[in-house]
Input
Amino acid sequence: MKSVRVRFAPSPTGYLHVGGLRTALYNYLFARKNNGKFVLRIEDTDRSRYVEGAVENLISALKWCGLDFDEGPQVGGNFGPYLQSQRLDMYQKYIQELIIRGDAYYCFCTQERLEELKKEQQKQKLPQAKYDKHCLLLSKSQIENNIANKIPFVVRLNVRPNQKIIFDDIIRSHVEFDSNNVDDQVLIKSDGYPTYHFANVVDDHLMEISHVIRGEEWLSSTPKHVLLYDSFGWDRPIFAHLPLLLNPDRSKLSKRQGDVAVEDYRTKGFLKEALVNFVALLGWNAGDDKEFYLMNELIENFSLERVNKSGAIFDIEKLNWLNAEHLRKKTNNEILTMLKKSIQQSEFTNQNYSDEFLLSIIGAMKERVSFIKEFITNCQYFYTAPMEYEQKSIEKNWSSETPNHLRKIRDAFINLSNPAKEDFELELTNVATELNIGKGKLIHPLRLSISGISTGPGVFDIVSILGKEEVVKRIDTALEKIK
RNA sequence: GGCGCGUUCGUCUAGUGGUCUAGGACGCCGCCCUCUCAAGGCGGAGAUCACGGGUUCGACCCCCGUACGCGCUACCA
Output
């Protein structure tokens, strides 16, 4: 069997789209699973759409996601260059072959004539607007003359009528087109650059790509590519056209309806593990109930045969859940590193917290957060004393007796030397017994006093993390502030 | 309009002719645990398997048609 070589071939229009990420990921998984090569090729044949820095962005987004490629820009390889704009001479060479063979031809039609043609065809209600092969009739000398006179031209694919174009697709199985419905696609543009359709075929062949795994939007133009392979006498790669990623309204996933760039999710605080896991499951599953995957598990289990046919809506709720799942699977030390980074970007950037302190927060909050930043936002009281107290909790838990109760707790705490969590709890239990009231009557006001809110880890966890001095101080403050 | 592809709970999906009175997950609701909030456990609501015809003893699964959705229809990818 031919060795597996796949490619991700984005055009450098700015950023890595999550749909692009999924295409890249499936290519990557397929390559790794089959001990093949994953190559990155940049499809920059449209000079008008080129965005400065886009290639670098693409590569860094790919890398962030953990998709390292074996060949491509920056890393090189034996099949380069990997930027199509640097392969122009190769396209020239191959287009000549096609022209000589009559499978492609020069076309000197002006934009105006083309537009008129289209208008006319629409007026006649022709089933489809196609180029009319007008320039196919040009004689050799006319062509030479035009070229000599520097009349702009394109080169078109010469599609022969009344042919069935049939190809197989791993995901869609058998697909059939009638050549009468295939337009004489422009292969070389008037600026000398190839179109996607031509460059893609030449490059995939030259780069010995074994499997073309790409989005469904390419399915309709695959007959053109097949015609090209056949004309050159090249082996066709195995095709696999992936279902599209959709907006909540089922249209093709786009900006406007939320974030589409991998970078957006990164800055929002999503873990790369969660994004990759989530995107992998959009259109693929192993056939069992497993939903939590690490990259190596995806590689182990992935197969193109189990990719779905229908488009999938990008549902952020499930991504959130997966993010929490992945976060909980991380070690506290891994989280510590991320938390420190997050603190640097927060209002507490100037504070100096010990690793030990932060680690104890992580231990207390790990089950209660979905995002790293929530280790700060969901429990600000660990970083700064409460400025205000949740009104609802005051109404519910604060009575005229409460100040006296709290004073007793404070006095009990203050005498403790080097107390552990259990010591605080014991003292509070004693006070409750002495007062002949339930512990809850003490716990809730205590929680409110030291945290300002009514939710969070066990109150004794908070107390021991904050420490005796700080807790006593906060109780005093609360006694003053809460009337 | 033409061509192509698709259609199972709100969403992601399992399902390859009898095991489906359709399973799981997210989300939602309830209960348990409990000092709160989570996490966890248990349970619930939620899909006439787009619709209509076939084929078959039997169809979510096979065939045909219809509807709807999406994609392509560029000298963009």
In short: Chain A has 20 helices and eleven strands. The radius of gyration of chain A is 32 Å. The CA atoms of residues 29 and 296 of chain A lie 9 Å apart.
